[in-house]
Amino acid sequence: MEHSESIALKVRDAAKFFGTRLIFKNVSCDVQRGEIMLVVGRNGAGKTTLLKIMSGLSRPSAGSADILTAPEKTAYLGHSTFIYPRLSGLSNLSFWATMYGLSPSRDELMELLKRVGLERAAEEQAGAYSRGMAQRLNLARVFLVDPDLLFLDEPGTGLDQASLNLLRSEVVSLRNRGTAVVWISHDVNHDTALADRVLGLAGRRMAYLGSATEFDPDTVLGGENA
Description:
By secondary structure, the protein is α/β, with parallel strands linked by helices. The chain contains seven helices and nine strands. It has helices at 47-55, 89-99, 106-115, 131-145, 161-176, 188-191, 217-221; strands spanning 7-18, 21-32, 36-41, 62-67, 74-78, 149-153, 180-184, 197-202, 205-211.
């Protein structure tokens, strides 16, 4: 049995309806600090809806989802980048820092941009960035927060291979430093190998919760890995 202080997120009997349409019900799990939990399911199974409930962006129709980390130490990275296109990469990062109540120096911000390979594009307008560069800038925002709990909603969608490799490597590094990661992946076959546990949604319910090494996508998802 896990100690309560090691739990970053607790979900109990969560259900979601849109009108009278049931999306899922009876979802319960604990997400531990220092683990990656992959959320998988067919298209329309409710993965993003569940992630929004877990992250506090949406309320469950029944049940509960409790974040047990400080709000300022929680981060969300999706396939939408939400960057400010007329600001430079450096100015985006500086603005995000103020939103979190942080005041890093220019050198510290440049170090974050260097970490994601954007130091040479620091003064360029972010609107001119490629998809991969924009997502790298978003990843620098995550590093800025140094989160205890990180939600990932298919952040690798549309990325070039170098950016995708960087993303995967840094997510694993965050996990190894103690961050709890809840990850919806667009590449289940590949990313399951990076995860510790898998939560599978199928048939409007939680069809699997267990070890990533024992997860069989064909059995849980009926042969569809989306």
